[in-house]
Each structure stands twice: as C-alpha cells, then as structure tokens.
Amino acid sequence: MARTDYIMKIEGENIARAKANELHCSPKHAIEIASFIRHKNVDAAIAYLNEVVAKKKAIPFRRFKTNVAHQKSLTGVVCQGRFPVKASKEYILLLQSVKKNAEYAGLSTENLEIVHAAANRGRSMKGIFPRAMGRATPKARETVSIEVIVREVEE
Prior knowledge:
The protein is of the alpha+beta class. It has helices spanning 27-37, 42-53, 85-104, and strands spanning 15-23, 59-60, 81-82, 112-121, 125-130, 136-141, 144-152.
C-alpha cells in the first residue's frame, strides 16, 4: 500500500476526503481524537477541537487511558481525558481542508458528517536527547498519518 492510499475505500457521489502524512504529533492522541470525532458533524467537530485547544473541554480517552486523570469537563461513563492541543490543531487543519474539498466537489458544507476518521503511526525518525557531561541518549520522533472521509447528509 502506498503512502497516499486511504485505509477505507468509500466511493459515492456525495463523498469528500482529505489526508495528512507524517505529522509531528502523538499517535495515541491522534487515535483518540479520531475515535471521538467519527460520526459527528464537521462544524461541530471543529468547534469542539477549538475548545480543546483553549483547554475548555477534554477529549475522552477510551483506549489509551492508563494513568489518565478524570476531567471535570467530561461526564458520563468515560470521564478520563486529556487536552491533546498539538494533535487537535492538526485535526482542525485537516477538517478545514476536507470542507474545502467538499465545497469544490459541489457538496453543502453545512451538512457534512464524518463517516471515517483514522490515525496510523507513521515513520519514526532517529533523534538524540542531549544529557549532562556531553552524553546523548537516542530517541525516536514519532509521526502520524491521519485521514478523514465525509459524506453529505440530507436533513
């Protein structure tokens, strides 16, 4: 599979898609955001992610929730969460891009529902972490590839 392929093959008349490769943010945060925004309205998802960037609302962590604290802004069954600001900014840019792609395809941008959102680990780049006394520790910089597919829904 090439780097530019999508995981899910969804075809149709009222479909728009966008993908971003090798972004410098946490794969765990990107996966949690993808599972949270799936099946939501695009405008509502962008508004919520802007609240996450402002640290007003948290993203509920369902999968990677070991040692994750409870958040006051979350209610319900899953009340553990964090504020993944860096990954949220990347998702906001991607959702704005998919809105522009939908507009170019002739779709109504107010009625877009996210039917597929996925995040995958990208390449890890070698790096070093400088230590005391002139030493260095190797580290890996993680990247993530995210993709979003939206569909126009009738109200």
